[in-house]
Amino acid sequence: MDFGQLKPGYVAVLGLPLDENSSFLRGPAQAPAKIREVLHSGSSEYVSEDGPYLRDHPRWRDLGDLSLGTGEAAMNTITEAADAVLRRGAKLLSLGGDHSVTFPVLRGFAKHHPGLTLLHLDAHPDLYHDFEGNFYSHASPFARILEEGLVTRLVQVGIRTMNPHQREQARRFGVEVIEMKDWHGQLPELSGPLYISLDLDSLDPAFAPGVSHHEPGGFSVREVLQILAQVKAPVVGADIVELNPARDVVGVTAAVAAKFYKELLAKMLS
Ligand code: MN
Ligand code: MN
């Protein structure tokens, strides 16, 4: 992987084809390729709604997919890659993979961005201490991130599956949870540097059926775009996770992911 081409102000895109930590279904390892396929298919424009023109943008670098082993080795490879990107002063947009990738990515961010704020969009709080014995489970990344102090603030939106254990975890870690039932369209004030973790199941399955865990009652595509538009803090990193192409319907969820790719990229280039 050619990290040497990166310079300050660049945005590196990295595919993280890992789904072994999914508790219910495999499939998200196929997501980075599907997102790129839609992005470059000619069916869409290389534009964001409110940002720079993206086609051939000189500071946009897609580095391709990381080659990942399994278990702790895969986690370490992800952390080292994130560190390699940030060491060059670039920003990182990661394409999952299941949500377990966010923990090793943020491990790579921690020493470069102390005091990081994390905005997390998800149907699920992903705060399990472990899930069926797996500490790397996609149901647990935010427990690991908070235990290691990798961020100073975690704000969650879209949540609609809060159970007693995770409510206790949220209290213990001081997570600011805005549950979907309480959502009125306004993010709290966020200061930078900011990292955005976007689980596609934060959307209603009507808009994004290609995810492993269908949880009705979520955001529309437009609501997520409005959330991103509200973010004024500098975004130093982001991920788009949990696209499961095996469950997608005529590629519509991959197209939604590609749309968010462009919006996040534009925000990070601005
Ligand atoms: Mn998640
Ligand atoms: Mn989720």
In sequence order, what are the helices and strands, one letter per element? EHEHEHEHEHEEHEH
Spatial order of the strands forming the largest sheet: 2-1-3-8-7-4-5-6
Round the Cα radius of gyration to an integer and report it: 17 Å
Distance between the termini: 25 Å
Tell me the number of strands: 8
Helix content percent band? 25-40%
Largest sheet: 8 strands, parallel
What's the shape?
A: globular
Mean pLDDT: 97
- Cofactors and ligands: manganese (II) ion
Q: From the helix content, strand content and strand pairing, which structural class follows?
A: alpha/beta
Query: Stretches where pLDDT falls below 50 for ≥5 residues?
Result: none
Strand content: 15-25%
Number of helices: 7
